[in-house]
Amino acid sequence: MGRSGILLLLLLLLAGPGVGVAWRPPKGKCPPRCSCSKDSALCEGSQDLPESFSPTLLSLSLVRTGVTQLKAGSFLRVPSLHLLLFTSNSFSVIEDDAFAGLSHLQYLFIEDNEIGSISKNALRGLRSLTHLSLAHNHLEVLPRFLFRGLETLTHVDLRGNPFQCDCRILWLLQWMPTVNASVGTGTCAGPAALTHMQLRHLDPKTFKCRAIELSWFQMVGESALGVESFSYQGEPHIILAQPFAGRCLILSWDYGLQRFRTEDELPAPSVVSCKPLVLGPRLFVLAARLWGGSQLWARPGPDLRLAPMQALAPRRLLRPNDAELLWLDGQPCFVVADASKAGSTTLLCRDGPGFYPRQSLHAWHRDTDAEALELDGRPHLLLASASQRPVLFHWFGGRFERRTDIPEAEDVYATRHFQAGGDVFLCLTRYIGDSMVMRWDGSMFRLLHQLPSRGAHVFQPLLIARDQLAILGSDFAFSQVLRFDPDKGLLEPLQELGPPALVAPRAFAHVTLAGRRFLFAACFKGPTQIYQHHELDLSA
């Protein structure tokens, strides 16, 4: 039996034994162009939605009417309806609460119409609905939560619609396996790659419906060469190396103003790096300075201020360019990359109350950057310099020993690493030439791809929430944000940072607090900019 035969049978059942016997309703109760029996009505060709029906009507069919839209409360005068059918009508929109008051409605058939849009609350209140058909309309998408509250549904027919099988249809694919109803879904009309594909054959896991955006939030007035995030006493903090202001500036979150504010600072003329270390209640800050000697500052407890504690290797650190924190044999250590000809990159480890030189590394090579990482379960150190390719050291016998260098990587200014899918990746910054992304193959780093990066001093990976990002800063163009695609194993462009544009960015850091995520961009020739990280649901 076809669909029209089934609908006719339903009409006969609902009409009862009086069908076929002319029923004379009270005057004005059967509108023009409608045929009425005891409990049912069929209207064909009317220009407006009829209003003067009996309030005890059980079934209503509207065929080829001139109604252009179903507005809220269209059927409040017939609260007893059990069946409502629309066929071959010209209306294209169904508004919120169009079927309000029909708490007894069990069968709703809206078929072969020109409906292109249905509001998300259009079906609200149909708590007795068991059969729903939206078949053979012009629906490309369905709003999320359209079926919310329809707990009694047993049959849903969505066939014959030109569904666009993009992120807007994802919620439907996720809903179908959870509902105790048979669902006829039909096929996709687009995009081209999915045309004619059955909706029921689509895998929700293949849809990429989450996007991110970095939007400007706040500015910190002074320029900076470095920025680091750390947690102290359970609260996230940020520290900026501000050479022109001559200080290391510590910021914390002001919960009242909902902004970052200055918490503390320490004087550090010509500072290039402020590296924090938290050991219980104690906070240490290594201030690496171009002139005047590098220093270690300490805060013994949360109620005390930072105070100078120790001068660090004054004969070895003549022109520091970078500082990194690493743990070796259970002890905290700093490595400071020195860019002078007479000095040397130095490993400083904790010994008693202070930090003292443990090893000199890479003398005479004018190192510009140090990066601590773990490979094959052992600590490693990667040094970039102005005189040769980056060199990889491994921790062996209580000291760092040279292991290998990075092939085809001349003129690398800095290196940063990240981990994804069990692999270790390396971002190499080049001021002249293309910056590079490499992957560790168990014995050496091998090139994956290159990125144009004229004027770059920083190519820094950051894991923010679930997103592995990398930011390629530039002195001559907009800084680029890239996101790692785990399926392709590559970094792909996401967005440009700005406005405001970053002026000579040198370092990036992120911090998470109060359910919000922020990105800090330290700029050498302009103020530090703060961006907020937003997650966007493209299936909403």
UniProtKB/TrEMBL annotation:
InterPro entries: Cys-rich_flank_reg_C (IPR000483), EAR (IPR009039), EPTP (IPR005492), Leu-rich_rpt (IPR001611), Leu-rich_rpt_typical-subtyp (IPR003591), LGI_related (IPR051295), LRR_dom_sf (IPR032675)
Location in or out of the cell: Secreted
Signal sequence bounds: 1-22
A Pfam family matched in the record: LRR_8
Start and end residues of each LRRCT domain: 161-210
CC annotations in GO: extracellular space
Mapped EAR repeat ranges: 213-255, 259-301, 305-352, 354-397, 399-442, 444-486, 490-535
BP terms from Gene Ontology: adult locomotory behavior; glial cell proliferation; myelination in peripheral nervous system; neuron maturation; regulation of myelination
Keywords on record: Glycoprotein, Leucine-rich repeat, Repeat, Secreted, Signal
Main location: secreted
Coiled coil: none
Protein name, per record: Leucine rich repeat LGI family member 4
